[in-house]
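Q: Convert this sequence to structure tokens.
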Amino acid sequence: MKAARVDWRYRLAVTSRAMAAIGGGYALAAGFTAALSLALALWMPRVEAVLTATMLAWLAYAMAAGWAFYARTAWGAWGGTLLPALAMGACAMAPQWMRGAP
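A:
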């Protein structure tokens, strides 16, 4: 039986998806934690809000990692992890931006 030869573009695509899963998933989990902590702090003590948001961020991280390998293209994997991470980061920074507005 002849061994299948894997071309360099396939390896690059898998590496890119792995980096999107790791880096993009981390960014999404961090933004999710920050935004959800601020939202939950309105209804519960701050420490409990941060702990709850951190535990739920593991689900966001796992879904981002799954999405990175489910996406049709590597660009879709990056876009599917980094765009929501930017949105969550903007939601987390919104109170700070509003406080600085004249």
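The two ends are 72 Å apart (CA to CA).
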